[in-house]
């Protein structure tokens, strides 16, 4: 006779998946807002076309600049 998994076990798994998916969507929203903000900043300070293109590329990796400046500020 095969043992069936209890409904409680399945409910725990479903709750865990929902929690993970909510967390991932939240971090994506934060990254998206940061991307838009940094894109506006870099494009508004661009002096030419190629500086604007470079600004778009910098806006894609804005978390790296944020962490670098934070570590530099903390003296690490």
Describe this structure in words.
This protein has 3 helices and no strands. It has 76 residues and is mainly alpha-helical. The protein has a domain at 32-76. α1 (7-44) packs antiparallel against α2. The mean pLDDT is 79.
What structural keywords apply?
single chain, mainly alpha, 0% strand
Short description:
The protein has 76 residues and is mainly alpha-helical.
Write the layout of secondary structure elements.
Layout (H helix, E strand, L loop, with lengths): L6 H38 L4 H12 L1 H13 L2
Got a strand count? 0
| Alpha-beta content class | mainly alpha
Using the CA coordinates, give the radius of gyration: 21 Å
Shape: flat
Mean pLDDT score, rounded? 79
The parts where pLDDT drops under 50 for at least 5 residues are: none
Helix content: over 70%
């Amino acid at each position: 006779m095969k043992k069936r998994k209890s409904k409680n076990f399945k409910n725990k798994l479903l709750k865990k998946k929902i929690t993970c998916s909510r967390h991932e969507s939240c971090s994506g929203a934060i990254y998206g807002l940061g991307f838009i903000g940094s894109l506006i900043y870099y494009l508004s300070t661009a002096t030419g076309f190629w500086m604007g293109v470079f600004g778009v590329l910098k806006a894609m990796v804005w978390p790296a600049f944020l962490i670098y400046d934070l570590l530099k500020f903390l003296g690490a």
